[in-house]
Amino acid sequence: MNGNQSKATRLTTSVLDVCRLVDGEAIVVDVVRSLNGTLVRVKPSSDALAHALHRAIRSDLPLATSAVIESVLSGSCELQVVVPDAFDARAVALRTARASTAARLLHRLSMLLVLASVASYTALLARVVLP
Question: 107 lies in which domain range?
Fold first, then answer.
């Protein structure tokens, strides 16, 4: 990718590259920039592939929000993907990381170590100040 491409174009290309791994004929229908990210709508070559595209996006772009949308008028399906901006992506990543069991255990362990350090420091001060 060259440096002249817009952020929306790069994100759209990334989404389409993931979709094309599943459906070589998938096309981008719509791209919309908003305050909370870039919305990319993808039309699969057949409605049956919409859910496969959804799984691929969720697997390859975990910070993106995606949904399969079915048109009430035509009955056709499209994949809607919202790729968050940097600020929202950071918030989603932190929320995901904090939700893991290992992160919660490490957080509790660090709090115990802080409390033990404070207690140790207090005991040391008590011995120095009060001989």
Answer: 100-129
